[in-house]
Design brief:
With 296 residues, the chain is an alpha/beta fold. The strands form 3 sheets. Strands 1-2-3-4-5-6-7 form a 7-stranded mixed β-sheet. Helix 5 packs across helix 6, helix 7 runs antiparallel to helix 8 and helix 9 packs across helix 10. The structure holds zinc ion (ZN).
Length: 296
């Protein structure tokens, strides 16, 4: 579903695995149009339909990082929009050209059944993939400019885009997850390259621009951006302390994951049994990323 948020920005609900308000893509329009993140490969038809219905042929495809929920459909869209310029962090580039390693890693992490539903990304010809350099400015015309801001942490190749005139960031996963139906903020810290120090310094880097708003993929627009950053730092520190204690006490991954899930359910005033998979899965994956980080 395509919703115009302003003259320049629209949010596309990619209907990830048929769930609304879980994975967003953003269309940013000046004279030219950029699509920031594009959802799972299995959401490509939804995104293509929304773009077609609104007469949009993106000039730029800008995945914030190569994970399947952000960049899975990039290859499929690249085939359709043959003139679109595709930009990604240099460390992400090999995965767009040959997604097989990414696919293998995701299959091991999520299980073959789940990744089958996410959909396998299509490869993109190397000549079409451009490197997004930190500080690069994409001028879309009509006063809309996007500044490339490297924000490693969630992944080492993660980037965000600052919409300079509006003091807004298209954050990708540089900030945590908070679904509208379950409004509690929690970290998104997956294997294999989550790094806590990098995440914190990326948050400080974003804070340094005094942003007013965040356009987040999971999910929607955040208007109190500075408080949101503080909330992110607090939730990361809380997880660090909690996971360390549970690890030292020799708990199993399942016990730890259940404890974190229960804690989030309590904060939501909901029984844990009511939490959908799109919430349970990222909690567990974030725990695994944290454990891997602590073991390094
Ligand atoms: Zn994500």
């Amino acid at each position: 579903m395509f919703t115009k948020l302003s003259e320049s920005v629209a949010i596309i609900d990619t209907q990830a695995l048929d769930a609304p308000n879980v994975v967003a893509a953003y269309a940013v329009k000046g004279k030219e149009t950029a699509l920031i993140d594009m959802g799972y490969r299995s959401s490509a038809e939804v995104v293509l339909r929304d773009l077609a219905e609104n007469g949009i042929n993106p000039d730029y495809l800008l995945p914030t990082h190569v994970h399947l929920d952000h960049c899975g459909s990039c290859g499929t869209l690249a085939k359709k929009f043959t003139n679109a310029s595709i930009r990604v962090h240099p460390k992400g580039e090999p995965h767009l050209v040959d997604p097989s390693r990414l696919w293998k890693g995701a299959s091991e992490l999520f299980g073959s059944e789940l990744v089958r539903r996410y959909g396998r990304p299509e490869p993109i010809a190397r000549r079409r993939v451009h490197v997004a350099v930190d500080g690069d400015v994409i001028d879309l015309g009509r006063g809309v400019t996007l500044r490339t801001v490297w924000t490693p942490g969630h992944a080492s190749h993660h980037i965000s885009y600052e919409w300079e005139d509006h003091k807004a960031f298209f954050t990708g996963d540089a900030v945590g997850i908070c679904f509208p139906k379950f409004p509690v903020l929690f970290p998104t810290t997956p294997p294999t390259s989550f790094d806590l120090e990098q995440t914190l310094s990326s948050l400080e880097r974003i804070r340094g621009s005094s942003p007013a708003a965040f356009y987040t993929p999971h999910y929607g627009v955040v208007r109190n951006a500075m408080r949101w950053i503080t909330g992110n730092v607090n939730s990361l520190q809380h997880w660090l302390k909690t996971i360390r204690l549970m690890k030292e006490a020799g708990w199993s991954e399942e016990q730890m994951s259940n404890t974190l899930t229960d804690e989030i359910a309590v904060a939501m005033h909901r029984p844990a049994s009511e939490l959908p998979d799109y919430l349970r899965v990222p909690i567990k994956i974030s725990l695994l990323g944290f454990l891997q980080y602590l073991s390094r």
